[in-house]
Design goal:
Elements (H helix, E strand, L loop, with lengths): L4 H30 L24 E5 L4 H13 L3 E6 L2 H4 L8 E5 L5 H7 L5 E4 L5 H14 L3 E7 L8 H11 L1 H12 L7 E7 L1 E3 L8 E4 L8 E3 H13 L8 E6 L12
Parallel strand pairs: 1-2, 1-4, 2-3, 4-5, 5-6, 6-10, 7-9
Antiparallel strand pairs: 8-10
Helix pairs in contact: 2-8
């Protein structure tokens, strides 16, 4: 029992160091857990991507996995192949739902995040890049690919970068997209269209969704572009077909991607 003010003050002083030490201990514990590596993400120097159960399977990295085509490619690869997938993008751990945890890993990051990209590219066999709009981001991806010795990449770009779209559709496309944006896209493609990589450039025409339509028609670099439209589902199927191909016919190619029998003056949905 405390009998006077002096004794109460003495007790408070005796208790204070214990309180401070407790706070320090709690802070240290918080720091440890806050910096503990997250197997599903790569957001700092100590982060890593959890290994797959079968590391011998082909491993594909999808950059921009939360986009419409990125999601379609993910589903198609899970259904049509036995590949392991690394899905990369901003906040993908909250934006994407993993349906096969044995074959899918998620990595949070943007295309300029070198550390996250380095973690995501560990031991990957091929990359699909869903967006080439940011030159700095593409350059960072290219740099990390060289560092990690990853050679195979498929990229999605736009039509018109070689002035290959003829007729009224070509005029309409340039008006809608803008000559400046087409020129920028052409410059960004040059970053991956290099001897170091086994690249496939996909010059996509105007996109729409139709799950039952997976038909695509390809034109080679130097040929007039064909097709005013194509479904995202068809593009996804093409990416799977390219990854599954063992002949090498798609390697170091720039392919125009359209839908058969759609040589319109503009897409049917405009």
């Amino acid at each position: 029992m405390i009998k006077n003010k002096n004794e109460r003050a003495k007790v408070r002083l005796e208790r204070r160091p214990v309180t401070i030490l407790t706070a320090i201990a709690l802070f240290a514990i918080t720091v440890v857990f806050a910096t503990k590596p997250n197997c599903n993400g790569a957001q700092g120097k100590n982060q890593y991507v959890k290994k797959f159960d079968n590391e011998k399977k082909m491993k594909v990295l999808i950059l921009g996995a939360a986009g419409q085509i990125g999601k379609l490619v993910t589903n198609d690869l899970l259904e049509q192949t036995d590949y392991n997938l690394v899905l990369y993008g901003r906040n993908v751990t909250s934006r994407l739902t993993v349906t096969d945890s044995a074959r899918v890993r998620l990595v949070n990051g943007d295309f300029k995040n070198r550390e996250a990209l380095t973690a995501a590219m560990q031991d990957v066999n091929a990359i699909y890049l869903n967006d080439m709009n940011d030159a700095e981001g593409v350059a960072t991806i290219v740099a990390v690919m060289k560092e990690k010795k990853v050679k195979r990449i498929i990229v999605a770009s736009i039509l018109g970068i070689y002035n290959e779209v003829p007729g009224e559709f070509g005029k309409w496309n340039e008006k809608m997209v803008g000559a400046g944006h087409i020129k920028e896209a052409a410059e960004h493609v040059k970053l991956v269209e290099i001897p170091d990589f086994d690249y496939t450039i996909l010059r996509l025409t105007w996109l729409y969704n139709k799950s039952a339509n997976r038909k695509y028609e390809l034109t080679q670099k130097g040929e007039p572009f064909k097709g005013a439209q194509v479904t995202r589902e068809a593009v996804s199927q093409l990416i799977v077909d390219i990854l599954e191909d063992a002949s090498g016919k798609y390697v170091k190619k720039s392919l125009g991607v359209g839908e058969p029998n759609t040589n319109f003056d503009k897409p049917s949905f405009y």
